[in-house]
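User: I'm putting together notes for a lab meeting next week and I want to include a structural view of one of the chains we've been expressing. I don't have a solved structure, so I'd like a prediction I can at least talk through. The sequence is below, exactly as it appears in our construct file.
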Amino acid sequence: MLELTLQILHALLAIGLVVAVILQPSREAGMPGIIGGQNLFGKTKGIEEKLSKVTSAIAILFMISSVVLAFIVGR
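Assistant: Thanks for the context. Below is the predicted structure for the 75-residue chain, given as structure tokens.
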């Protein structure tokens, strides 16, 4: 039962991570984008910053759930 619950959570996190990455705005193309170009006057928009934090949080949770599932299935 625990394994099934974690698998469902893992699948939801995977879908959430894909959606969060797709919603990320594209960066500048070319050389400024490669070396870390910045937005207008070096400021990021509030929504982009929040989306970046949400994406990072989902990615961390996804990695943790991957490790936990690996240990549970490996037993």
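A couple of points you could mention at the meeting. The radius of gyration is 17 Å. The longest helix spans residues 46-74.

User: Perfect, that's what I needed.
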